DNA sequence: AAGTCGTCGCTTTTT
DNA sequence: GCGACGACTT
């Protein structure tokens, strides 16, 4: 293992006076960084110490506090930008936070890491991949990819007879990974008399093996593998523990065990023996060590509110925030209770719902903005009736001068958009569904992306098999199987087996087709090799741009051509979608000069629904309550509030025309979407 | 190998 | 109510 000095770590910080974190650093911030803050917000910005918990009720200005706190740390020279790691919930929130910090400081603050858990982990893993035997161009599998693999495994093992479905296996694997239980840990606890457990272990094993062989990680791996990396290689961990002196985590109530463990690893002190090793490798630690010769753990700030925990289904553990003071003894707690976004009527209604939660610490949100307009309740006779009400109300708001883009409609599940969309189309209301079936989930886009993935990561068998016969080139399942078994028998990768297609004894047509595809992918990969100068600099100089590679692949595979000449009328739209993807890669190339294909693929893998939201769109936004978290609108509609609306599975379909639907809207005041836990019974 | 028809089961919520 | 998948046909 080699330790390198982080390339984007400015060296100046070592010389700076007071660079070491110091709890008694004196008056913290310039006045402009605390101006206009209430006393509690100011306290949260100015507090200096190892651990700070900011309990921030909905709409209490926590983003403001976080950005001011970061700016204050930098402004007071208590941290260099590169020593800051801030974790946000979406990439969009990260970009906004960076802009706001830079606006406060009046200068660019490059080197700050502000990102989601997943983005930060990918960045670390790509850099340290070789330590854990992974290619730095590893693929990130989304849930559809996971399901495809699990489907194949379940079929091969006949596991469906025991009731396993791809979805059930995926959920179970995800749960285990979020609890940091890897296959071998699970294997040790398996009850060998239970055929279900034995079968699941086999599924888990195969799944793990296939991802490893393909050099691929799923979403949950991104977090857990980073934790394993840090635990197995203290010297690697020390690089990051040394670097990040201030770690700030937003939405802490929605962290799961793996994310919690990651934070614990990152805030761990570096022991003197490891400090000595860092020194030997030329990693500078001067000014960071304390009297005992160790580097103290980073200071940690978490922001959250247990009333706003909505991700328990993906392993979020509310104990992380409830037990923060026990985990980090001596932690300071600041409560933000003044709400700046809603009127009292809205707060009271929200409170009435939340107060039904058990185990709840009472919080009293208040506002100085007065009662405001009352919330409107409406009970419809059907989903369509409800949608019509919403549409009429939106029209009324619009006539009263509210812009469409300041209006949002929320629901629990994506399936609930249907009635709304029908009525909105009929009423000619401009709207946009945020999330749901995304652009990148369309089959033709996944095909084009699979070409890029296959070029970036030649080990990725899933990607290659997806495009093997797309567009149709006469390679059917039989041919596919014979390539796979040839690879297996000769210890080759699928890709290598394709290159050696001559020896497979297939028909001339199939052989030519396979070799043609292998050649296309190899040539595209060759375009990505940087020039000698680029290699010498360690940059991407001389490598083809993403859009050039994609254009080459589309041309060589006839992907768009095939769609254009197809008889299926829908294929014209599909061709346009692929062209749209090409346009997006051009935008990417322009906005990210020097970025690689892997950077593009990573970005696409990690976009959240809310990241796609275009603030200037001029349309009403439709989205799930989960997607809405952290967003803000002038008027919002909550639809489908009736009991049991989303659990049709266990109930017969609703008798026609008698579905009770409830919508409620708030307007003429700024309402902030902030969903709350609603545990039934 | 590709096209057509009929059956099953599925959806909370997401990085 | 829709889409994915398998069996069947050409």
Automatic annotation (TrEMBL):
<keyword id="KW-0238">DNA-binding</keyword>
<dbReference type="InterPro" id="IPR027417">
    <property type="entry name" value="P-loop_NTPase"/>
</dbReference>
<feature type="compositionally biased region" description="Low complexity">
    <location>
        <begin position="16"/>
        <end position="26"/>
    </location>
</feature>
<keyword id="KW-0347">Helicase</keyword>
<dbReference type="InterPro" id="IPR000212">
    <property type="entry name" value="DNA_helicase_UvrD/REP"/>
</dbReference>
<comment type="similarity">
    <text>Belongs to the helicase family. UvrD subfamily.</text>
</comment>
<dbReference type="InterPro" id="IPR013986">
    <property type="entry name" value="DExx_box_DNA_helicase_dom_sf"/>
</dbReference>
<dbReference type="InterPro" id="IPR014017">
    <property type="entry name" value="DNA_helicase_UvrD-like_C"/>
</dbReference>
<feature type="binding site">
    <location>
        <begin position="56"/>
        <end position="63"/>
    </location>
    <ligand>
        <name>ATP</name>
    </ligand>
</feature>
<keyword id="KW-0067">ATP-binding</keyword>
<feature type="domain" description="UvrD-like helicase ATP-binding">
    <location>
        <begin position="35"/>
        <end position="343"/>
    </location>
</feature>
<keyword id="KW-0413">Isomerase</keyword>
<keyword id="KW-0547">Nucleotide-binding</keyword>
<feature type="region of interest" description="Disordered">
    <location>
        <begin position="1"/>
        <end position="26"/>
    </location>
</feature>
<dbReference type="Pfam" id="PF00580">
    <property type="entry name" value="UvrD-helicase"/>
</dbReference>
<dbReference type="InterPro" id="IPR014016">
    <property type="entry name" value="UvrD-like_ATP-bd"/>
</dbReference>
<protein>
    <recommendedName>
        <fullName>DNA 3'-5' helicase</fullName>
        <ecNumber>5.6.2.4</ecNumber>
    </recommendedName>
</protein>
<feature type="domain" description="UvrD-like helicase C-terminal">
    <location>
        <begin position="344"/>
        <end position="630"/>
    </location>
</feature>
<dbReference type="Pfam" id="PF13361">
    <property type="entry name" value="UvrD_C"/>
</dbReference>
<keyword id="KW-0378">Hydrolase</keyword>
């Amino acid at each position: 293992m080699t330790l390198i000095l982080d390339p984007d770590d400015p060296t100046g910080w070592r010389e700076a006076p007071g660079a070491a974190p110091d709890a008694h650093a004196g008056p913290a911030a310039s006045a402009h960084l605390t101006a206009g803050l209430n006393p509690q917000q100011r306290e949260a910005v100015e507090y200096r110490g190892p651990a700070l918990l900011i309990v921030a009720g909905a709409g209490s200005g926590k983003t403001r506090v976080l950005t001011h706190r970061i700016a204050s740390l930098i402004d007071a020279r208590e941290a260099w930008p590169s020593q800051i790691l801030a974790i946000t919930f979406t990439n969009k929130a990260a970009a906004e936070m960076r802009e706001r910090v830079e606006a406060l400081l009046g200068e660019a603050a490059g080197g700050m890491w502000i990102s989601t858990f997943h983005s930060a982990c990918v960045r670390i893993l790509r850099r340290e991949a070789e330590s854990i035997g992974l290619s730095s161009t590893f693929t990130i599998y989304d849930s559809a990819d996971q399901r495809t693999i699990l489907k194949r495994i379940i079929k091969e093992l006949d596991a469906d007879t025991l009731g396993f479905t791809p979805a059930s296996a995926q959920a179970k694997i995800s749960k285990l990974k979020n609890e940091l239980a890897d296959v071998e840990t699970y294997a040790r606890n398996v009850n060998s008399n239970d055929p279900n457990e034995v079968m699941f272990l086999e599924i888990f094993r195969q799944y793990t093996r296939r991802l490893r062989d393909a050099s691929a990680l799923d979403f949950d791996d991104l977090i857990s593998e980073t934790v394993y990396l840090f635990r197995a290689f203290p010297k690697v961990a020390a690089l990051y523990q040394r670097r990040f002196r201030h770690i700030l985590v937003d939405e802490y109530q929605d962290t799961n065990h793996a994310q919690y463990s990651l934070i614990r690893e990152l805030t761990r002190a570096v022991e003197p023996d490891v400090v000595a090793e860092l020194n030997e490798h030329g990693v500078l630690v001067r000014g960071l060590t304390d009297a005992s010769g160790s580097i103290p753990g980073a200071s940690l700030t978490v922001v959250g509110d247990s009333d706003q925990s909505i991700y328990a289904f993906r392993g979020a553990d509310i104990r992380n925030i409830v037990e923060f003071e026990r985990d980090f003894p001596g932690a300071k707690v600041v409560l933000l209770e003044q709400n700046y976004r809603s009127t009292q009527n809205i707060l009271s209604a929200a409170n009435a719902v939340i107060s039904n939660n058990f185990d709840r610490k009472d919080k009293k949100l208040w506002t100085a903005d007065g009662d405001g307009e009352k919330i409107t309740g409406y009970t419809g006779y059907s989903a369509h009736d409800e949608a019509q009400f919403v549409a009429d109300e939106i029209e009324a708001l619009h006539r009263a001068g509210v812009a469409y883009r300041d209006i949002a409609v929320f629901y629990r599940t994506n399936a609930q958009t249907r009635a709304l969309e029908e009525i909105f189309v009929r009423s000619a209301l401009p709207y946009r569904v945020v999330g749901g079936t995304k652009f990148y989930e369309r089959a033709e886009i996944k095909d084009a992306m699979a070409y890029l993935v296959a070029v970036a990561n030649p080990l990725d068998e899933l990607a290659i098999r997806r495009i093997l016969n797309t567009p149709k080139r006469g390679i059917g399942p039989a041919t596919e199987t014979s390539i796979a078994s040839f690879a297996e028998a000769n210890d080759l990768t699928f890709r290598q087996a394709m290159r050696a297609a001559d020896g497979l004894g297939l028909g001339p047509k199939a052989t030519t087709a396979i070799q043609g595809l292998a050649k296309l992918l190899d040539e595209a990969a060759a375009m990505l090799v940087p020039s000698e100068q680029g290699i010498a600099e360690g940059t991407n100089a001389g490598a083809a741009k993403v859009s050039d590679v994609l254009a080459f692949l589309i041309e060589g595979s006839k992907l768009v051509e095939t769609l254009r000449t197809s008889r299926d009328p829908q294929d014209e739209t599909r061709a346009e979608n692929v062209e749209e993807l090409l346009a997006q890669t051009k935008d990417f190339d322009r906005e990210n000069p020097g970025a690689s294909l892997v950077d593009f693929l990573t970005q696409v893998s990690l976009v959240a629904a809310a990241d796609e939201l275009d603030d200037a769109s001029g349309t009403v936004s439709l989205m799930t309550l989960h997607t809405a978290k952290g967003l803000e609108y002038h008027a919002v509609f909550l639809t489908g509030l009736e009991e049991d609306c989303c659990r049709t599975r266990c109930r017969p379909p609703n008798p026609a025309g008698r579905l009770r639907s409830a919508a409620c809207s708030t307007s003429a005041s700024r309402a902030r979407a902030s969903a709350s836990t609603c545990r039934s019974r």
